[in-house]
Amino acid sequence: MNHPRGSYLNKRLLRLQVGFLLSAGPGACRSFPLNIPQRLQIHEDLFVESLTGDLVLTRAKDGILLQGKLEICHRRECDRCLDSFEHGFKLDIAELFALPTFAGKTDFCVDGNNEIDLAPLLREEVLIEASYRAVCREDCHGLSAETGDKLNAESDWSAARELDTEAGAIDPRLAVLKQLLA
Ligand SMILES: [Zn+2]
Fold it and tell me: In this structure, are 114 and 166 located in the same domain?
C-alpha cells in the first residue's frame, strides 16, 4: 500500500465500547461526539481526511442502535480533470448493531468484546459516495479534448493567453505583407 501523506490515525479509534449500554438495558442511551480532524485509516486501502459529528448510541432490545450525523472528508478523483482532491460530504446514520446472539440478522453486530466497529460502516458509505460524480471545483475545466492535458493549471491559461497575443501581434503584419505582395 502507498501512503501518499505520511502519518495517519489507526482505525482502532473507530471501535466503541458499548458494554455499559448493554448492561444498562433497553432504552439507555449515550451521545458520542466524534472529532477527528486528521487523516484516519478506515480500511487497508481507504483513508478519510477528517471525520466529525455526533452519534447517539441507544440500547435496543436486539442490539445497539447507532444514530447521528457525520461530516466526512476524503480524497477522491475529480470526474472532469481526474485530479485528486478533498471532498467533504454529510452523512445521516441509522444502523442497528445486533447483539452477538442476533448476529446475521443485520449487516453489523456487537463483537465479543462488547465493541462496535464503525470502520466497515464508514467504508461502505465512503465507497458509495465515491461512486457519485463530483468535481474538484465548480468551474473545473477538465481535460483538453485534443491533447488530454489538464486545462486548470494557471500556467496553461497564461501560455494560452501568450499564444493568443502572439497570434494577434503577427496577424496584422501578415495582413500587411499579404497586401504588399498582392
Ligand atoms: Zn477537476
Answer: no
